[in-house]
Design brief:
This protein is α/β, with parallel strands linked by helices and 244 residues long. It has helices at 11-27, 41-50, 68-78, 94-97, 112-128, 173-176, 220-231; strands at residues 2-7, 32-38, 55-59, 83-88, 104-107, 133-135, 142-144, 148-154, 157-162, 166-170, 184-188, 191-194, 198-202, 207-210, 215-217, 240-242. The chain is built from seven helices and 16 strands. It starts with a strand and ends with a strand.
């Protein structure tokens, strides 16, 4: 899933863009979500620091002490990989906007056809960005790697476990392992763990606990390799190991 956030100083335009984006998701069977909209750039910055946003759609002229370009600069300082799409009626801003690794520029008034073209290209680009997004099976659905805690094998299906919900796909570990980022490590015949999300390992009962309280198992065959990865410092959390 790609999470979208929108900032525009005009509440009516904000609502219209949000509805158009959701219509594009539905019409093209895309796994996206407009998770935050605001007329206040400070609120967007606050929200972005505590949530994983994949796509920002920003008006440049926000009638505020913070304009869309300032907003983009601050977003970029915390998130190098997010997609930035600018909207404005002032065409003279177009060259300035690309300074912030802009994905696209939408001139107002925005049509749903132009917006749809941008969103489809964006999803296709994310699909090819294997170091950031994980493709779910053979579908067009994608998940930000930071949202995934573990991947579970269940019969002919793979279950991608995230904080909000689980996603299913008919596939196998052998088909996806080579395409996963290096922080995804096989820890059991039925589990692949995102080591960046591990908060605790219980070595007595061979279980992993993630930072959202999700757990998975460690198999004897995979334990040594898992511990080598963790000991080499490839995980970003302060990991604790317990024996109780």
């Amino acid at each position: 899933m790609l999470n979208f956030a929108i900032c525009d100083d005009n509440p009516n335009i904000l609502s219209k863009i949000s509805k158009m984006i959701e219509a594009v998701f539905i019409n093209n069977n895309l796994d996206g979500k407009v998770c935050f909209t605001t007329t206040n750039p400070s609120d967007l910055l606050t929200f972005s620091k505590k949530s994983n946003i994949d796509v920002y759609i920003l008006d440049i002229d926000l009638k505020s002490c913070i304009n869309g370009l300032d907003l983009a600069s601050q977003i970029r300082s915390n998130n190098k990989n997010a997609y930035l799409v600018f909207t404005t009626a002032h065409l003279e801003y177009i060259m300035l906007a690309y300074k912030y690794k802009t994905f696209d520029y939408l001139a107002k008034p925005i049509t749903i056809e132009r917006l749809e073209e941008t969103i489809l290209r964006l999803f296709e680009d994310a699909k090819c960005s294997s170091n950031i997004y994980v493709n779910i099976g053979n579908s067009s659905n994608m998940l930000n790697e930071n949202d995934i805690y573990c991947i579970k094998k269940q019969g002919m299906k793979l279950i991608y476990c995230t904080k909000e919900k689980s996603y299913e796909a008919y596939s196998s570990f052998s088909k996806i392992e080579d395409c996963l980022p290096e922080n995804f490590v096989r820890c059991h015949k039925s589990y692949i763990a995102n080591v960046n999300k591990i908060s605790n390992i219980n070595s007595n009962n061979n279980t992993i606990q993630f930072d959202n309280s999700t757990t998975c198992l460690i198999g004897p065959k995979y334990k040594l390799n898992l511990m080598e990865v963790l000991n080499n410092g490839n995980n970003t959390n302060n990991l604790e190991c317990t024996n109780n």
